[in-house]
Amino acid sequence: MKKLPNSIDVHVGARIRLRRRTIGMSQETLADGLGITFQQVQKYEKGMNRVGASRLQNIAEILNVPIPYFFEESPGMLGESMDMGANELNDFMSSKEGIALASAFLAIEDKRIRQNIMNLLRSLGPSASTQSDSDSAIHASH
């Protein structure tokens, strides 16, 4: 019988993958920096192998993030668990499209243009009518 990975190990691995892909680093580059094979990085990212404390410190240094980054929104953190929305967000932000969209959005310096893009995206979403109703109510109350 195959043992399932621990949910914290899976979350930490997903955060490693998210950060690595966000900065455009390959598994091979991370592996080289750690002195391990890229297959070992794959196992960490899938949560199949647990990342030890000293290895996590090395990964944090290479990826230029603080250690707590890997545990943000983790299952069981302060009694909270990741809901489906958080899982979907992590999946999206780990995808090529999510990273490209976030990078392109952050490259836009004009705050008004970013706000216009956000308004456009909200208007295209399935809950656009619900969103605009709640926005109207908020603006009416101010």
In words, what does this structure look like?
- This protein has 142 residues and is mainly α.
- The chain has two domains: 7-107, Orthogonal Bundle (434 Repressor (Amino-terminal Domain)); 109-142.
- Helix content is 67%, strand content 0%.
- It has helices spanning 7-22, 27-34, 38-46, 53-63, 84-94, 96-107, 111-124, 128-141.
- Helix 1 packs across helix 3 and helix 2 packs across helix 3 (38-46).
- The longest helix has 16 residues, at 7-22.
- It is globular, with a radius of gyration of 19 Å.
- The N and C termini lie far apart (60 Å).
Brief summary:
This protein is mainly α.
CATH superfamily of the largest domain: lambda repressor-like DNA-binding domains
In whole angstroms, how far apart are the ends?
60 Å
Mean pLDDT, rounded to whole units? 80
Q: Biggest sheet, in brief?
A: none
Q: Nearest-angstrom radius of gyration?
A: 19 Å
The strand count comes to 0
CATH topology of the largest domain: 434 Repressor (Amino-terminal Domain)
Fraction of residues in β-strands: under 5%
Q: How many alpha or pi helices?
A: 8
- The coarse silhouette is globular
How many distinct domains?
A: 2
- CATH classification class of the largest domain: Mainly Alpha
Q: What's the helical proportion of residues?
A: 55-70%
Provide the structure class: mainly alpha
**Uncertain stretches of 5 or more adjacent residues:** 78-84, 129-142
Helix-strand sequence: HHHHHHHH
CATH architecture of the largest domain: Orthogonal Bundle
Keywords: Plasmid
Pfam families: HTH_3
Domain HTH cro/C1-type: 16-70
Organism: Peteryoungia desertarenae
